[in-house]
Amino acid sequence: MGYVLYTLSFALLITATALYLLRARWLHLVPVPEYLYSRLPTSFAGDVESGFSSSAFDLSSNIEAGDGRAGLDAQGKREVQRIMKRRGVGFDEARRLYTEQRFAKNDIGPDGLPRDPKFVSFS
């Protein structure tokens, strides 16, 4: 039994060493999502530079006013960036898709009205 354990340990050590030494040949074949390693900006100016602004969602007034806040919500930016990269859409479309996903998660219809059958609206 000891020989089997020793042989497996030695084979694992040899395999791991070979993979480490030859990683330049195979590492590019491993699918690693890019968005895991991209840093999100932490200011409104960084948000604009990263493409998180458009004509319908303009952050330039925040920058001109010298707004010292941290910028947009980090979790929302991460999700919008993921949608932009996966689906190949622009910022406005990714923001719309993200909002619809959040609505669906909270049981709200695409038109903004709750899907609760007990909901009563006085208009």
Helix and strand topology:
Elements: H1 2-21, H2 23-26, H3 44-49, H4 60-64, H5 74-87, H6 91-105
Helix pairs in contact: 5-6
Could you please describe the fold and organization of this structure?
The protein is an all-alpha fold and 123 residues long. 52% of the residues lie in helices and 0% in strands. It contains 6 helices and no strands. Helix 5 crosses helix 6. The longest helix is centred in the N-terminal third of the chain and has 20 residues. It starts with a helix and ends in an 18-residue tail after the last helix. 9% of the residues are buried.
Beta fraction? under 5%
What is the overall pLDDT average? 79
Overall SS class? mainly alpha
- The ordered H/E elements are HHHHHH
Task: Give the N-to-C terminal Cα separation.
Answer: 79 Å
Question: So what's the overall shape?
Answer: elongated
The total count of strands amounts to 0
